[in-house]
Write a structure and sequence with these properties.
binds protoporphyrin IX containing FE, 6 helices, mainly alpha, cytoplasm, binds isoquinoline
């Protein structure tokens, strides 16, 4: 059973709510990634030289939002086409950036877990198993595309 309209709606609606609070959302996302994998800190250029996660850092916010937006777009494509298609240039860039930074497969599980926990906190009572599966599936398919590109370039 492919990605359903209901799943797409769950992803889109929760993102509409979450994006009204980008500063807090991006900070939570990042904090959670580092809680799960403290060693990931050194990978991010905007964190390297600070003791704590910088509040209100525009680059951090922009990056975090991109990850959410791309996962959201991935959900739309899954429903429309049954697969995730990332624009060729974007995918190439993502592949090479992540490869260069030393990202490996298990890191994708860390980011997934952090993404889901951040959403859970943000939406509160609206959180459900269905919402978790919808975001999780959209993320997994997007991650698979990036991983495949990384392998092509390695
Ligand atoms: C950079 C998205 C997974 C670590 C980026 C950028 C995007 C992005 C859009 C900016 C690329 C650019 O600068 O042109 C995603 C998405 C992911 C994902 C959509 C999963 C579906 C991961 C994972 C890690 C990671 C698993 C490992 C912890 C990084 C790092 C950078 C980066 C270190 C460079 C940040 C810097 O400029 O210092 N990612 N990413 N990403 N990502 Fe990811
Ligand atoms: C880049 N790639 C994956 C996850 C991220 C989280 C916050 C900021 C940038 C990111």
């Amino acid at each position: 059973a492919g990605f359903t309209e209901q799943q797409e709606i769950l992803v889109k609606e929760s993102w509409e709510t979450m994006k009204q609070n980008v500063p807090e959302l991006s900070l939570r996302f990042f904090t959670t990634i580092l809680e799960i994998a403290p060693a990931a800190k050194g990978m991010f250029s905007f964190l390297k030289d600070s003791d704590e996660i910088p509040q209100n850092n525009p680059r951090l916010k922009a990056h975090a939002v991109k990850v959410f937006k791309m996962t959201c777009e991935s959900a739309v494509q899954l429903r429309e086409k049954g697969e995730v298609v990332v624009a060729e240039n974007t995918l190439k860039n993502l592949g090479s950036v992540h490869l260069k930074k030393g990202v490996i497969d298990p890191h994708f599980e860390v980011v997934k877990e952090a993404l889901l926990r951040t959403i859970q906190e943000a939406v509160g009572e609206k959180w459900s198993e269905e919402m978790k599966n919808a975001w999780g599936e959209a993320y997994d398919q997007l991650a698979a595309a990036i991983k495949a590109e990384m392998k092509k370039e390695a």
